Amino acid sequence: MARITVREAISQALWEEMERDESVFILGEEVGVWGGTYAVTKGFYDHFGAKRVKDTPISEAAIVGAAIGAALTGLRPVAELMTINFAFSAMDHIVNEAAKLHYMFGGQFILPLVIRTVGGGGRQLGATHSQTPDAIFAHFPGLKVVAPGTAADAKGLLKSAIRSNDPILFIEHATLYQSRGEVPEEDYLTPIGKSKIQRPGKDVTIVTYSKMLEISMKAADQLSQEGIEAEIVDLRTLRPLDMQPVIESFKKTNRAVIVEEGWRSYGVGAEVAARIYEEAFDYVDAPIQRVAQKEVPLPYNRTLEQMALPQVEDVIRAVKEVL
Amino acid sequence: MAEIITMPKLGFDMAEGTLVRWVIAEGEDVTKGAVLAEIETDKATVEVESTASGVLLRQLVEQGSVVPVNTPIAIIGQPGESIQSDTKKEISAEAVPAAGSEKEQEAQPSQKPSPAIEMQTTAQELRASPLARRLAREAGIDLGQIKGSGPQGRITKVDVESYLAFKGRMASETVAPALVSEPVSPAAFTPGLDQHIPLTKLRSIIGKRMVQSVQNVPHFFVTHEVDVENLIALRKDINNLLPEGEKISVNDFIVRAVALSLKEFPNLNASIDEEKGEIIQHGSIHVGVAVALENGLITVVCKYTDQKSIRQISSEIRALVDRARQGKVRSEDIEGSTFSISNLGMFDVTHFTAIINPPEAAILAVGSVTPKAVVVDGEIQIRQRMNVTISVDHRISDGAEAARFLQVLAKYLEEPLRLMV
Q1: Which end of chain A is more exposed for a tag (fewer CB within 10 A), N or C?
Q2: Contact B306, B297 (CB under 8 A)
Q3: What is the pLDDT of residue B6?
Q4: From the CA of A233, how many Å to the nearest CA of chain B?
Q5: Contacts of B133 in chain A (CB under 8 A)
C-alpha cells in the first residue's frame, strides 16, 4: 500500500484509465496546458496530447453538452467542471439531458459520461464558490452521484465511474486534495452504490461522506477517549443510495447522527433520516440528529466561514444529544 | 420550541410529589441537567433536573404544591418565546384541585382551550422510543411500569432493559432475592453543600426499633463458617430441573435450614416478657427475611416455615419480596416473625452482625459464598464456604446454645439432602 494524496489518487485513476482505454478523454477549463485548477491533470497534456486532453472555452454548458455528444457517439469523456458551483450554468445539460437521454430514447443510447467537479467550502472562496449542492444533483433519477472521502475510494470509484455506462457526477472536495490515505498498489475498482463502514463502533451510528468523513473520524476519536464508540458509515455514493450498512449499523446502535456539509433543509441528512425511520422504525431509541451547514450563504470571512461549516465539536455535541 | 418539564415518577409507587423549592427562577437561564427544583416524595427529597437548555419561561406550580406525577411543572424555552400568561393559574388549578379557587375553576370553560392545556395533554402521554415500545411489546410488559430516563422522561432501550434485568433478578436463581432492590440513584453529591433529607416514615420506624433493640437487648454474636460445597452443587442440579422464574436461591435453603434447626432449639424461637418475667417459646416457626427497599428495609415473613418445602418457601418469599418492592406489602406479610435472617451474600460480604428484630430472640446474618482453601481430611482443598453470624438476646439464651444451634444449622447446610426430605 502506498500513502498518497487524494489528488494523486484521482490523477492515477485518470491516467490508468486513459492508458487502458483509448476512448477515454478529458475536457474542461485549463485541464490541458495548465494542468487543471487543482493540478489533477498535470502532465496529461504532454503525455496524451491535445486530442485527448482538451482545453475548452469558459462555458460549462458547452463542456457538458460536448461531453454528452461525445458519449452518445461511443467515447468515454471525463468532463471537468472547475467547481460544482459552475455546474449550475450547465444544469439543463446535466439534469435534462445527461440524466434522461438513455430513458427517453428507450435505451437506444448509453451515456458513459463522467463529470468531475469540486465542491465544498473552507477555502474562503465566498458565497458563490463554496457551496455543497450535492443533494440537488442526487435528486434526479438517471444521474449517479459519487462523492468519495478517502484517497483509496477516490481512485477506486473514479475508475469504476469511467468504466460505467451511466452518466455520473463525481464530486471531489476542495479541501481533501491534500489529505493522504493508504491506496492499494494493484489495479482495483471500488463499486459505485455501496456504502462502507469506515470505523466500527457500537454506541452510535454516524452517517456521512466526503469531507465530513474526516470531521466525523476526528469526532469519533475524541468520543472514544470518553468511552463512546461511534460507528461511521461512509455513503460514498449519494445516488443510488446504499442504506444497507446504515440500517445494519443502526439496528445495532439504535442512535444516529448524520453529518453533511451542505445545508440541513432538504439535504442528505433529511433523506437518510427518513430512510432510517422507514426501514428501522422499531429500532429508533432517540430522535436522529443532523449536523449540517448553517442556513446562510457561506461567508468569506475565515472565522465566520468556519462557524457556518460543521465542525468536530458539532458532531460531538450531536452524538451526546442522541446518547 | 418550548419544552415542558413534568413531575417525575421516581418510584413504581409514586403518585405525587411536593414541590418544596424552586431552584431556578422564572426568566433565569437553565442548562440541560441543571437542578430546577426540589421535590419531596414519601420516600425522599430529590432534585428535578432540566431536560432542556434555555430559559425557564414559566413555573407552572407554586412552591409547596402537591403535584401528581407527569403533571407539567415548568416550561423551558428560548428567550422571548411567548407563553400565554394565564398558563400558570390553569395548570396549577389542574395540578392541585383543592387549592384552586372556584373562580379559577369556573373561568376555565369559558376560555378557548389554551395552548398550555393542549401541551399538558401531550406531556402526560407516555413518552417512549419506538425501540423501547417494541422491546416492551415483545417482553409483554406495560410501559407504564417503567420510569423513563430520556428527555422529558422518554423511556428508552436502557430503561426497558434495566427494568427487565430488575424483574429478572427478582426471579433469578443466581442471587438470593432477599436483599436485591431496584437500582437506587444516590442523591447527587454537591461539594460544599450539605443535603438535608427529611426522615421518611419507614426510616423513622427502622430507627426507633433499632435504637430500642440496641439499648434494651444485650446482644452477643457467634460466627460459624459453613461448608456449602454440596449445597451449591445440589442447588445447581435442582435448578437445572426448574423453569426460569422458579429457581431456588441459596437463601431459600438457609431459610429452610434455619426453620428445621429452630425446631431443635425452641429457646431461640422465643421472646421475653420482662414484666411477667417469662420467656415465651413460640409454638410456630415464622422465619422473617430482611428485604432492602429503595430507602430502608422491611422483614417479610414466611409463616410456618418448618412445614414447607424449599420450593414452597422459595415461591412464597419471591411473592413477598415482589410485593414489598412494589410498595404493595400487606400487613400480614411483615408481621409475626419469630426469627429473622439478614442476607448480604450478594454484596461480597465476609461476615457481618445484625441487630435483633425485637421481640425476637435472635437473628442470623449471612455472608457471601466464597471459594476458600481449607483442610479436608488432611489435605488442602478449595471449597465453597460461607460465614453465618447469629446475634442472640443474652437475656434469653447463652453462647453455648447459640453455638450448638449453628452446629445443627451447619449440618443441614453441609448435608443439604436433609433439607429435601
Answers
A1: N
A2: no
A3: 84
A4: 21
A5: 282
